[in-house]
Each structure stands twice: as C-alpha cells, then as structure tokens.
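dumping this here before i forget
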Amino acid sequence: MTTMIGRRRLVFHLCLISLLLFLSSSALPSVSAAAGRRHYIVYMGGHSSLHSSSATEADLHAITNSHHAILATYLGDIERAREAIRYSYTRHINGFTAILNEGEAAQIAKHPGVVSVFPDRRKKLQTTHSWNFMLMENQFTDKATAFWKEAKFGQDVIIANIDGGVWPESQSFSDEGYGPVPSRWKGTCAKAGIRCNRKLIGARYFNKGVLAVPTDAKAGAHADLYSVRDFGGHGTHTLSTAAGNFVPGANFSGAALGVAKGGAPRARVASYKTCFNVPDSCLESDVLAAFEAAISDGVDVLSVSLGDDINYDYFADGLAIGAFHAVRAGITVVAAGGNAGPGLGTVSNLAPWMFTVAASTMDRSFETYAELRNGLRIKGASMTEALLPVRKFYPLISAAEAAGLRPNATRDALLCKPGSLDPAKVKGKVVACLRGDTSRLSKSNETAKAGAVGMILCNDKSNGDEISPDPHFIPTVQIGYKDGLKVFKYINGTKNPEAYITGTFSRFGEKPAPAVCDFSSRGPNVLNPEIMKPDVTAPGDQILAAFSMSASSEATGPDDPRRFPYQFESGTSMATPHVAGIVALIKAVHPDWSPSAIRSAIMTTARTKDNTGNRMTEVGGGRTNSFAYGSGHVRPNQAANPGLVYELTNNEYLDFLCSLGYNTSSIGTFEPGHKCSNSTRWSVFDFNYPSFSIPKLGAGPVTLTRRVKNVGPPGTYTAQVREPYGVAVKVVPDVLKFEKYGEEKSFRIMVAAKSKGAAKDFEFGGLTWTDGVHYVRSPIFFTALFSNSLLCKPKTLDPKKAKGKILACLRGDIGRVEKGKIAAMAGASGMILCNDKINGDGDLTADPHFLPATQIGYRDGVALFRYISSTKHPKAYITPSTSMVNVKPAPVMADFSSKGPNTIAPYVLKPDITAPGVNIIAAYTEAKPTDPSEDPRKFPYNILSGTSMSCPHVSGVFGLLRAVYPHWSPSAIRSAIMTTARTRDNARNPILDSTLEKATPFSYGSGHIRPNRAMDPGLVYDLSVSDYLDFLCARGYNKTLLKLFSDAPHECPKHARIMDLNYPSIAVPKLKGGSSITMTRKVKNVGKSPARYAVRIKEPKGVSVSVKPNVLKFNKLGEEKKFKVILKAKWNGTADDYVFGGITWTDGIHYVRSPIAVYVVTA
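structure:
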C-alpha cells in the first residue's frame, strides 16, 4: 500500500465482498503421521587439527557418545537420542544429524556449544574440444602444451567429486599405465557391485539422510541407493571432465569425434555419491558426511556441482560448512554457481572459501542443413550419425498431410505424436514436423517408425530460434521458427516439394566465443555483496564427457533406450570440473600453494574478452559484466605463472566471520584459541580477495586494503587502473618492488564518487598489476549512493546555504515528508522533490509538506539538475496546490495494483474489477501522529493509496445494492458490479496502465466500477454454495476436505469442470492451436420481462468465438437461461501471450459485459 503521509508501508485489509474462498492444497493441515518431525543438522563447529590427524577409534566413539548425551538432555532418554541420530560427524566437522521437531531444534540451538541448527535440505545437481579451446593443446606449437607437460597432466593429484556416483567401467577411468596408488591415500572403495583401480582409487556412498525420507520411489531403487554406481550420468560426466583419461575416438552418436580427456588426465580420482535417482536426495546431511570422508581420505581437490535456489547463512548451509572444513585442511573446493540465470542475484555457493564457477560457450557448433529444391539452404542443428541413403532430393511432406483418421488427427500428426502418422503417406519421404507436446527425439522416433527417410523439425513460435543438436533416430535437422515458416510456405506453394538433409558438421572457430550462457546464474552476491561472485567462468555448454551406461542424458530423454558411453551435457555443473582440473594441474606444479593462492592465480589471469577481441557478451550478443563471468574466462596456461597472488589464511576466514557477527565463543567451536578482534578497524573491505566490490559508495571515499605475494622472479609491478564510470580510483603505492619469491606487499585502493557524473547503475572497472610480463587483473564493482545532503537527510543541510532558497532534493532513504521537514528546518523557502530512477516518472504523490513543495518524475528531475548545473544563478517558483477535477485520462491503473492471471485457479479471471484507490481522503485516527518517525502532526482526515482503499469503495457499492435488493446473493451482486463495469476512460479511450500503455483485464478485471449501472444490470451470473463446492470438487477436494468448511455433506459430481463455474468472466489458460474448448454459463433475468437479449462478440486475436444460442428470451423475472461459449484457436494468428476479448448480452437497454482472456499455444 502506498501512503500519502511518510514512507511507503504495507497494510493488510480484509475485504469480504464474495463468498468464494480459493484454497490451495498447500494451505491444508498436514495429516502425515510424522507431522512436525524432520531431519535437522546440528552444527557444533570443528575439531582441532591435532584431533583430526591423530584421533583413535576410542576418541571417535567418545565424540559420538557426547552427541548422544547432548541430544538426550533435550529428548529425555539416551536410547531415544541414539535412535534419532543419523550421522555423527567426528573427525573434522563436529556435529550430528537427527530427527527432531521444530521445538526441539529451537531448544538445541540455544546450547552454548552449538553454532547452528538447520533443516536437512536437498541440494540440486547443477569434452573433446573444451581443453583445446582453452589452449591446453595445439597442433602447431608446443607452447600451449608446456603447462600440461610441466604438470605431468596432474599426475598423482587426487581429485574427487561429491555427486551422483561413477560408472567405473568407463575408459575414462581405466588404470592402464598407472603406478601404485599414492601412499597418502587413506580412502576406501565401497564393495557394492563395483571395483576400484589405480585410477579410480576411491568410491563411497552416503545414504542415511535419503533413506530416512519416506517415499515410495525408493522401493525400486535398491541398486542405486546401496551402491556408488552412477545411475544418472551426472557424476560420471563431471568426474571425467575434471580428470578423465585420454580416450581416442570418443563421440556422441557419431558427432564430436575426437580424444576425450579431463583437465588433469593423469590425476587419481575418487567418487563420493550423495545424489540418487529418487526424490529428495542430495541431502545436506549426506553431503556433510561426504565432505568429512574426503578430508580424512586425503583428497587434494573437490569438485562439487551441487547448489540451492536459496542462499542460506554460511553456517546454516551444509555445503558451505563442509567446504569450510575442507579448505581449512588445504583442499580446494570448486563449486557450481547455479543454473538460475540470467536474473541478477541468482548465483549460489557464495562462501568466500569456495571457488564459484559460471558457465560459458566454446567456439564449436554442430551444423546440419536442410536444402530445398527451390534453392533455399537453411542452417539448423542435429547430432545424427545416420545419413540419407543417396545424395539426392527426397519428396517433402508436411506431417499434417500424413494424418490418420483418429480425433484431432491433423494437429497430432503435425506434432508427429505417437501413432499419428499414416505410414502409407510418409514412407520414403522427408517429413516436416512442428515442435511441441512431445520431445524432439520422440518425433524423430515416430517418423522413423512410420517409414520416413528424414525429418525437418520446425520450432513453434514459443521456442523461436532456440535449436538443439540432438541424436535423432533418422537424418534430422531442427530449424528455427522463422525458417520453419519458410519450409511450410514452400510445401504449401509447390506441387511436388523436395528436400535433402545434410550430415552434421562440427565447426570450430565460431565467433564470438566464449559467451556467457543464459542459464548461468548471475551476481551480485546476495549474502555479502562485498565479495564478488561468481569468481570465474569456464566451458559449460555442450560438454562431451563419459556417461553412465545405465542412464539416458537430458539430450536423449528418459524414453530413449539407446545408451552412449560419452554424452553431451550443459550447465555450471559442467563448468565446475573444468576449473577443478585446472586447480589439480596448478597443485601438481605448485604443491605448496594454498587453495586461496590457486584460486587467485586462476582469477587474476582470466580474460574478459572473446575471440573477436571485444568484451565478452551473453549468448545472443547482449552486453554483460562481472556479475556474469566474475574475473573472466579461465586461461590455464597463464594461471600456472600468475606473477602475484592474493592469499588468504585460515585466520583471515575466521576474521571474516567475526565481521559478520560471529563472536569469539562461536568461532572457538571450530577453531579453539581464535579470538575476534575488538578493534573496529578491520573491515570486510580489507578481506584479501582477488576482486574489489563496493556495494554502496557514498559521497565519502572508501579505502580497501590488499596484499599480494610474489610467486615469480624478483620484479617491479606498476598499477594500471580502469576507472568505473563516475568514480575516481587511486592506488597507494602504485609501484610494488619485490626482491624475492614469497615476499608480500600491501597496498591500498581508494575509491571516491566524482562530484559530477554519478553512476546510473552498477558500474565496473579493474585494477591490473604488471611487470611487463605478468598481468594480475582484478575487477572492481561498485554502486553509488548519492550524498546525504542531496537526499536531504537529517543534519546534512547547511542553514546558511539553504535559507531563503528552493532546494532540489532527491527521493530515497527517508520519507518524502521528512525531507520537506528537514528543508524547512534549514530555512529553505521551498522544495522540489525529484524521483530517483527506481521510482521513475509515474510514482508521484500529493503529500502535506511542511513548506511549499512539489514532487516531479525522474526525467523531469534530470532536466532540473541539468538546468541547475549549467546556469550561473538558477531560479524557480512553486505554484500553490490546486485541486483539479475531470482530469483526463482517468481512471488510470496504479502501478502498485497487483495483476493477474490467477495463479491458483487460472480458469477464474482475477482481479474482478477496479475502483478508486489513489489519493483517497478519508477519516483517520488522531490517537497518534500520522507517522511518528517523520511527522508529529495529527490530521482527522488523511490521504492514502492502495487496493486497501479501492476495496471499501466496492464494499460501499455492495452495501447499496444489498439495501435495494436484500434477496440477492453475494454472487449476484458481484455479477451486477462486474458486468456493468467500464473499460474506457473519461476520454472514451481504453483504460491505460501506469506506463500509459493499454491496460488489460489482468489489470482491471471486468473494468472500472459504475455504481449507477450496477443498480440495473439486466442479467446476473448467480452462484450457489453448492456451485462453489462443485468448483472445489473440480480442484480435487474430497468429502473429508469439504467438511472442513461445509455444514452439510456434499456429493461431488462425476464430471465437475472448473471452466464451467458460473463466473461473470471467462479465462482459458491453455487453448491449443486448431482445437476448441466449450464453456457453459447461465444468466438470470433481474430486469424487465419479457425480455430478449442478443449476444455481441469481440474475438480475441487469433481465436474464434461462438455463443449458442446467440439469443436468449426471458418471460419473467428470476428466469434462468443457459448458453455455451465455444472458443477455437485459429492456425493463423497464434498468440505471443494472453489475448483478450469479450461477450456482451444486450436487449438494447442493458449491456451485460464479460471479458475473455485466452492463452493460445501451438504446442
């Protein structure tokens, strides 16, 4: 709700104008036998490093017993505690997982030895050319392979993943040519249907968490749940990407033929399985157990392609906790940034001790062409090994022409659905199919079974030009929507159309590359924006790697019986092991480097330009920045010799936690003896991260401190700064001289907003230290805060400068009225309040200011400040406020008013109507000031805005109608108000929204209320309580649930349909192209009698509407008549979105209007 006095605040009102209650199943009380009990992780910090390395079995049992004892004090019994605990973490991580209720968890969280208690949540699982693309190999020069050779291809470094298991028989994990397992390896191999070897040296599974989750899906998953074997493919793919062997001849369905290999192909690998092919796997309790095992086993690098859609506090996140303890033990943890892009603030795995990876493309594409007899050659995508029998043109047919005789035959055939094609019409031909309803591979399978020689798969409008190289069953090419139109136009306009489909070509050197993938999650870091995330980007699109021979990939789908030893996958899950492989190579060359030093080396040598020499873009060419790619795209060869590194110690991570509010007691639970400094001098801005992030840069300068360690020869480095727009950057000192290897130097970077040219949005720049050979790059990011005086904040205005003048203040931070009060106290004679960019031009409010004032929009404010800055003696005058009526256009929809469609029951159009809700003056309480924090004045009447204000307007009209028609039901009154509403403004044009674009029924429902017309609606759509109960029946409610709010028993009809609810509006959330839908309504005569009503129809674009009967005759008052509305989507004129129309019943005096909202889909 928008208030007119003081700040915008949210007020909840209950407006009861309808009997209908919409209830979702999630709102119903749980009747589960285990209601209220679930798994919680009780985190108690860590064990000392001495304990971790020298603990005996007796020590470990003692810790487990202590966990039992702690839990018993809350559960009341030691046996209950033993039964409740699923995991005790005893070596590195201190804590346990137990079944508790919410109250028990809350009590345990108060224990002085407990850091955090949080629910056991599920985490999500997030090539032959990628290493060549990163210049690790090149046929023309040895320079690119020097690092690989120096690192001995990662020999004897131990890389592990926490994922979905491994397919041990894959050639990527063969141990041919490997020597003995490194003696420092302490891990084991689970004896459950697999054998480890000298390459795959460890394999374990962790299932206690998932086994405790009740689900029927586990019944047939015994082999999966009790084995480290990979039944999904994801774990095998990521592990082989990081460290798979050189495997000549690897391909996917004949495409991308080459030598498969991981980044560190001679490294040893281990698999820790925590993800299973059942619901609710990848649980944090299992993940934590895997981390603890990996630390004890002696892993060097962990690749973790897991994440969450929600970012939790670091010590309420099992993955962050496990990673923290791994990094403390010297293990680099590389984690996926997530696949929730391209929205801002979606990146996950934000802990500063984790190495967070985004995904980008390579310079390879897979091209297949459709060649038409008319000379048209269309580029598409495929990955099909099969070729057409002969290099010639083949007859081409639209799949719609091959329809059988069943219902919806033409539409089903066009979509090449199962059993829809007539083999006699298809055999020996190339078939053009439309995308939609069924999978892409299903369509090629159907055309193959019908005898076609090839398929052209044409995208529908909703999929546009997004095409995928799939391993089809017959020669196939998928083409975009516009190209598909050309194909169908050629077929329809040609007597004997013919086509040829080429083989698939792997094309290299595509430009631009890399480009950030759309799915890759973006920054900023929502937990600590001072730490930039993601850190880097790496290849994550169409990555070929080893796969499980028990699983189909996302590309093939679950219904494809074919299995491929190497498959393509995309995601940040695929980018992550690329970085893990690079980490292993650096570890092989620099075994003494810490995880933070290795991360710094990779980040500061990354590249932000693509292979055209321009700044990296998003897929499709859109501009992007460090929120998408972090420090840039990884460059392994440069990372081996970075020159300088930004290193972090374990104590600095602890100081970082201290800065977040963790006290010495909390920190001591996982690092005994560490004390948080009482000094206020330490700042998160001094955290020695290889990037610089200032989320709120005010008028004053901000100083960040960093230090760099020389890991190259002695040399002198000079600072080069690329200043972000609107900010000055100074580095002190700007020259660093290093005399020896390992020497560290500190420097400060001072950032200040320039007085002119403030940033419009997020701004990016960079700092590079260079000795002429090495270029140590770090991105700089900031957002600017305007000066406090510009915002007219308390104690910021100088009365000597303000007295007698009109002040131009910027909106933001404090309330609008408070700004006027501060200006008045400083002696100003007036104020012009200028909207900031966020509030734009439409959000203007008439406030009762303390001095003459006016509020103006953003663009007008820009013009005003331009006038002030360009004029020697700027002057202004503020007119008195005047009340104007009959302003046009009106009404206009308010920007705060919520919009449809109805997300719970989309067949019911919401909102119902609109009514006045902006600047509404009404009685107000005088018990307290209007806004105590800003305005001490009291008013008997006040101006407020919001749907809270429009709601009582409708309630008032409702009351008037009830007084005139006391026997009318609530639904009849609602119908009268809705069907007489108006969709045009006082200029007789369609009602506009707040951006002055044409509004739709999703904004105003049936229109703006007209009380006088509602008094005599002519006809009404009535509903009984039984009708509402039938509606709930159609929503899936049974007798038991209906009893919760119905006094009398109600029998659900056998065929209840939501769309037949007798509502005064019509909504269809999905109308398939070429098909029709019929809805039933009934109207009651409440006007004159006899009466004759004829229907008028306004068809939504691309939809035909018919009403049967189209004339209704009434002989008396109260008589009801039924009619049917038939909606049919036209093939020509499909919708990009919802389309709108309406029907009106009229007798020449009354006009009973009902809006129609339809979403048309062609698939």
